[in-house]
Structure formats: structure tokens, C-alpha cells
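Sequence, please.
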């Protein structure tokens, strides 16, 4: 259970070694053979069409990456830690050590807890992934996490145009010490870089507030029980300090209980976007305040050398409007179920298979993977997305 708390507190505390300096190279290779099918129906002709994609895919059981960890014992109970992690594209080699966008932090820890600086996982995503039977990655991923990373029309940017729901750059965090009777907590704040407004003004009232992130989380673990909650706020768009900016607020509550023969997990999530600017990344016209709420229920079951994984999630949007038309679609919602099996060949190597199905209702356009549905423009509104299904057979290796 302790490892799940560490994941909740921004994806694990840097490993520390006593009385010495250490540096470790680590990574994950994850590849799968995948097939995805998306269906769409023309509301006028009632004709159903499908698009299929066969692909050599990655990050369906753990995002492929290469990283470096370093730690030093400073004496007096103080430890310095460094974590640099870069995503890799194993299928075509197009990504490598050209940046540490996955994670890049430096930390100082001691009896007081831990202080951490850099680009790190947000608390909202940490809560999504800690409870997810599919560990926060791949197309079986927690629908609540995916719905916050994509807008209701399936475009990157999230509910309020958020580019980085999963990670926050320029962040500072404080983590409680681990010896508090099962309680763990974190405070996180990310600066908005304070770029000057057009014209080179140095006035503090002319600097952007975009991309500022503030969050807090508290978790309690006692044996098989885990309870956790997070609250976060992100400022998006181009609002200045002397004007109201767009804000997206997230509340997440998660719980799990390990019965030994099975572990049950549950999550409730609520997001709300408010402000005067565009509320979705795909919008060309200012939209009214919108929000979403959803839940997830799942379980994992140990089976010999492997594990069965299953989850069902549902998300409902408070409102959805098509850019250019502002036509209401009723009660937009998305449902998704996923089931998978992991067979451990060793402590570091595993084979896995996943089967997923996502269903759109009343105008939403989410899909598991390419080919994506088209945007909800005035010309394509009559084409109503339906289901998106996928199957993956893969191999994952830690090193």
C-alpha cells in the first residue's frame, strides 16, 4: 500500500541511500500490437461508417521512458534527490533525450518532510492513476483522467484548454513526513512564468496568469485501506492580473480496499471551468461555464503469476456546445469499460492483453486512439460518433 501513497504524492518520492551518493539509470520499454475501431452514424441518412487502425503502439501498460535518479546524504538527516525522466518512442525512435518533459525535479528531504522543485505530476492526475487498475497509462486508462486531458470534442487541451493536466512545470511542492500515523499530504504551486504582456510592459498588472496551478492533497493508508482526496485549480487562457482569467477547478476523492483475493477501487471526480475566455481548446467562440462529473469503479484480482484488471467509468458534462453553432446537444456523456490480464514472466517483464469499449452520447467525441472523430463543426454535426473499441497485446519490461 505504501507505494500507492507515494504515487499519489506526485508519483513516488525519490529513492534515497544513506551515507553516500548514488546515481541510477532506469527505464521502461512498453510495446503492443493494437487494433482500434471507431463507429459514426449520419443522422440524416442513418448510415453507419467505421474507421479502423492497426498499429504497433506503446505506453499501454507503462509509458516507455529513460531516466536518471541521483541522491546524496547531506548529513543531519538531510537528503538531496534528483529525478530526470524523458519519454521514448520505441516504435519509430522519434523521441529520446531531447528533453525531460516526463519529469524533472530536485528535492530536499529530512525530518520536516520534503521540498521539491521542477516539472512534476499534478495531484489530480496522481489521484487518478493511484486508483486506476490500468496504472494511469494506455487506452484502458481511467476515463476521468482522459476526459480532463481532452475536451468533450476529443481535442487536446482539456475541459478548460489545459495543456498539462498530467504535469505542471515550474512547480514547488511540500510533502509531509511519512511518519504521521498513516497520513500523507502534499501542497503544490506552479508559477505561470509571468511573461510580459505585448508591448514589453514591465508592470506587474500586465503579466499573464496563465498556467498557474495550485493544489493540495491528503491521503490515509492503514493496511489494506486507502482513502485520499485532492483539490486543484489551474488558470488558463490569456487573462492578465488586472482582468478576470479562466479557471478550472478539480476535486477528486478515491478509495480502495485490498481483500487479498481482490482489491476494489472507486473514484469520484468533479471539474468546473469558469471565466470569460474560450472554455475548450477547439472553440472559436467564447463558451459559457461548463463542467463535468464522473465516477470509476474497478478491481484487480491476483491469478497465479498474473493479475486480472477491470474498470467501468462514466462521465457526464454539464453542457456542450458545438463551436460555430452553439447548438445544445442535450446531456453529453461518455461511458467506458476495460478489462485486461497481466502475466508476469519475471519481476521486471510482463505480457498483457487489454480489451476496451468507449461509448459517446449526445455529442461527445472521445475515442480510444486514432483514427479520431472529426471536430464538431457546423458541417459535421450531423455525423454522430458512437462507439470506440480497442484490443491490445503487449510486452512491458523494466530496467
Amino acid at each position: 500500500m505504501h507505494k500507492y501513497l507515494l504515487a499519489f504524492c506526485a508519483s513516488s518520492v525519490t529513492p534515497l541511500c544513506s551515507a553516500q551518493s548514488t546515481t541510477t539509470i532506469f527505464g521502461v520499454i512498453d510495446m503492443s500490437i493494437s487494433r482500434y475501431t471507431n463507429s459514426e452514424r449520419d443522422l440524416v441518412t442513418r448510415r453507419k461508417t467505421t474507421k479502423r487502425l492497426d498499429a504497433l503502439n506503446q505506453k499501454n501498460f507503462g509509458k516507455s521512458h529513460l531516466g536518471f535518479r541521483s541522491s546524496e546524504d547531506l548529513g543531519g538527516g538531510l537528503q538531496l534527490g534528483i529525478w530526470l525522466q524523458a519519454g521514448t518512442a520505441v516504435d519509430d525512435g522519434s523521441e529520446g533525450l531531447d528533453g525531460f518533459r516526463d519529469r524533472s525535479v530536485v528535492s530536499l528531504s529530512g525530518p520536516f518532510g520534503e521540498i521539491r522543485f521542477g516539472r512534476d505530476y499534478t495531484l489530480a492526475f496522481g489521484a487518478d492513476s493511484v486508483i486506476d487498475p490500468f496504472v494511469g497509462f494506455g487506452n484502458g486508462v481511467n476515463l476521468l483522467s482522459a476526459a480532463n486531458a481532452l475536451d468533450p470534442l476529443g481535442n487536446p487541451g482539456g475541459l478548460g484548454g489545459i495543456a498539462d493536466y498530467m504535469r505542471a512545470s515550474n512547480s514547488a511542492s511540500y510533502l509531509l513526513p511519512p511518519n504521521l500515523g498513516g497520513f500523507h499530504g502534499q501542497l503544490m504551486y506552479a508559477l505561470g512564468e509571468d511573461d510580459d504582456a505585448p508591448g514589453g510592459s514591465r508592470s506587474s498588472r500586465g503579466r499573464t496568469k496563465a498556467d498557474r496551478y495550485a493544489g493540495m492533497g491528503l491521503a490515509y493508508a492503514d493496511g489494506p485501506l486507502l482513502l485520499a482526496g485532492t483539490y486543484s485549480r489551474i488558470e488558463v487562457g490569456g487573462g492578465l492580473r488586472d482582468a478576470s482569467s479562466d479557471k478550472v477547478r478539480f476535486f477528486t476523492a478515491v478509495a480502495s480496499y485490498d481483500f487479498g483475493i481482490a482489491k476494489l477501487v472507486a473514484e469520484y471526480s468533479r471539474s468546473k471551468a469558469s471565466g470569460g475566455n474560450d472554455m475548450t481548446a477547439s472553440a472559436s467562440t467564447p463558451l459559457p461555464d461548463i463542467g463535468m462529473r464522473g465516477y470509476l469503479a474497478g478491481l484487480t484480482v491476483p491469478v497465479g503469476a498474473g493479475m486480472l484488471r477491470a474498470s467501468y467509468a462514466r462521465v457526464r458534462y454539464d453542457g456542450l456546445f458545438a463551436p460555430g453553432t452553439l447548438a445544445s446537444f442535450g446531456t453529453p456523456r461518455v461511458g467506458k469499460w476495460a478489462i485486461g490480464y497481466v502475466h508476469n514472466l519475471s519481476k521486471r517483464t510482463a505480457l498483457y492483453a487489454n480489451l476496451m469499449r468507449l461509448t459517446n452520447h449526445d455529442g461527445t467525441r472521445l475515442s480510444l486512439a486514432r483514427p479520431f472523430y472529426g471536430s464538431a463543426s457546423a458541417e459535421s454535426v450531423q455525423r454522430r460518433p458512437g462507439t470506440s473499441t480497442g484490443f491490445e497485446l503487449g510486452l512491458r519490461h523494466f530496467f
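The radius of gyration is 22 Å.
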